[in-house]
Amino acid sequence: MNNNHFTTFISSLSQSFIPLISSEFSKEEYIAIDLSKNNEDLATIDVSSSKAFEEYIALYLIRNKAKVAYGGYNEVRNIYRRSTHFNQLDPETERNIHLGIDVWCDAKTEIMAPLDGKIHSFKNNNHYGDYGPTIIVEHTFDEITFYTLYGHLTLDSLINLEIGQKVKAGEIIARLGDASVNGDYAPHLHFQIIKDLQGNIGDYPGVSNKKDLSFYLQNCPDPNVLIKIDKDEITKL
Predict the structure, then answer these.
(1) Contact present, 229 and 102 (Cβ < 8 Å)
(2) Cβ neighbours of residue 180 under 8 Å, at least 6 residues apart?
(3) Which residues of 137-154 are buried (b: 16+ CB within 10 A; e: fewer)?
(4) Which of 105, 168, 174, 177, CA to CA, is 20 to 30 A from 186?
């Protein structure tokens, strides 16, 4: 299945907005946020400090009278330069292009599965600047299998999980971790759709370099086509 067909297939699995976090937040309480290298506001804060970044997100929400911020697919970011896990500053090999969607809200917020599936794998990716606790769910519809990844969770989210464990759409599968466990970030969910895991277990690249970007954008379509948080973007399909 080529990329356009796969993206169209993923889009067909939902007809309206699917929340990834606690249903106590209405869609009207979400606001898009720009964390790209073009956001001049980020130059005024210490992005290497998870506390400073959390304060920036909180102030952004207050100013916009919102409770949840989201965005980041195919976004070129400078915030990864703080970590040697990503930090190769060659323009072609520096990993700084985000492959999922981030949902920014308070630590311990409930994470919900958008679709039926089963636990494929889970792992604590505990490098500085990495996902921290991570869950991957496997989905099969119309004999097509793909995966969704949930990063930056609490350590407790991995307790009592079993490979192959069934997951129902809307079921609470995890909670958001804080900076002490989530790779040292302000609390947020990294959500990513993956066509081919390439043999990875409990992990998959969530940030690409420029050289490999074409492949990763084909293998990891924009999550918005599934969760439909931004209708204007979906109309571009």
Answers:
(1) no
(2) none
(3) bbbeeeeeebbbbbbbbb
(4) 168
Report the candidate in 50, 32, 33 with the shortest Cα–Cα distance to residue 178. 50
Tell me which residue of 80, 3, 20, 68 sits closest to 237, measured CA to CA. 3
Look at residue 119 and give its three-state secondary structure.
strand
Residue 34 has a CB neighbour count (10 Å cut-off) of: 15
Strand 132-141, strand 144-151: pairing: antiparallel
The burial class, CB within 10 Å (0-12 / 13-18 / 19+), for 2 is exposed
Give the pLDDT of residue 144: 96
> What is the rounded end-to-end Cα distance, in angstroms, of the chain?
16
Residue 161 main-chain phi, psi, to 5 deg = -75, 150
Closest by CA position to 234, among listed 101, 98, 110:
101
Q: What are the tokens at 4?
A: 């356009």
User: Which of 1, 87, 95, 79 is closest to 34 using CA atoms?
Assistant: 79
Report strand pairing: 30-32 vs 68-71.
Answer: parallel
In whole angstroms, give the CA distance from residue 15 to residue 17: 7
Cα distances (angstroms) measured from residue 179 to each of 13, 68, 185:
33, 18, 5
Which contacts (CB < 8 Å, 24+ apart) does range 53-59 have? 53/79, 53/185, 53/186, 54/179, 54/186, 54/187, 56/186, 57/33, 57/104, 57/186, 57/188
pLDDT in tens, 149-187: 999 999 999 999 999 999 999 999 999 999 999 999 999
The whole model's pTM is what? 0.93
